[in-house]
Amino acid sequence: MPIRILQVVNSMNHAGLETMLMNYYRNIDRNRIQFDFLTHRDFVGDYDSEILEMGGHIYHAPRLYPQNYVKYFHFMRDFFAEHPEYKIVHSHIDSMSYLPLLAAKKAGVPIRIAHSHNTSIDLDYKFILKELFRYKIVNVANEFCACGQEAGKYLFRDKRKFTYIPNAIDKNNFVYNPNIRRKIRKQLSLNGKLVIGNVGRLVNQKNQSFLIDILNILIRNDINSHLIIVGVGKKEKRLKEKVEKLNLKKYVSFLGNRNDVNELYQAMDVFVMPSLYEGIPVVGIEAQFSGLPCIFSENIPKEVAFSKNSEFISLKSSKYDWAKLIYKSANNSESREILKLNNNDYDISKSYRILENFYLNLSRKCE
């Protein structure tokens, strides 16, 4: 019988940490290790059908609203009583992992893993609670993981050593293909245009509003440009209103959630992430394996970069400086057809063993 690992997430939609989990799930030896998922949304996620096909189970807990906490802990108490098979719980919701890991500790689950995927949190109505949970998480977890050094230092505050689990991808899905580039650019009417790409949730953290301002500068300077934004989120309406206000509607494509992001990278000329903060963005890794020149804000850890076509620029720099760098990067990059990228950390065909061995070693502690 395989070891069953309970992965705790918000949902299993197309997003960074969820995609990372699926990359590992597809590659580990599922005869020895099986993933199940505890989500905090009651809808069907983008990856749910694939999870079920691979033998995983999906459970839905109440949302982590403060008014739900009593209901939540009742649910978790009953859940662990009904599922004594879970000896390892691996939570991926940053400081909010405090809550499911506290429930797991109360239920006597022996291995409780907190995994850091970020370097900051949004200033929303739960900010004070999240900060409190960040300080207390080391009291309920007894194993610690992070996607990078800065992410680990942020969540665990140098209080605990942590295991580095790289945000690895299947690089073969992202190899540059000129035929796909021609197909997608024709479909989206992008021929002859400088195409800027961004992939991520439409939320304050990802800072797509800043990118729209940069596009406006390029267009006003007669640079035939087009911005592709892939993703959904609560800022979508506001971003579209801004595009309308600046008369940029014909220069911006909001593509929503897509399952062909690997092909969309082929159509881009430069990938830009002006994020306010990140852990190690999976999309940044994907874009580099696609051979794209990438421009990251200096708020993103330098650990993400492994291509010589990656650059960092401060959000304090003028938007004109950003526009100039985008134009230069899109026009001066090495041919994507001859760009060879070898990075073992971010190649899932090698790195899956890191997580596989991590779980196998932990399971021996439960015997």
Automatic annotation (TrEMBL):
CDD domains: GT4_CapH-like. It comes from the Bacteria. Pfam families: Glyco_transf_4, Glycos_transf_1. Residues 16-171 form the Glycosyltransferase subfamily 4-like N-terminal domain. Residues 182-340 form the Glycosyl transferase family domain. This is Glycosyltransferase family 1 protein.
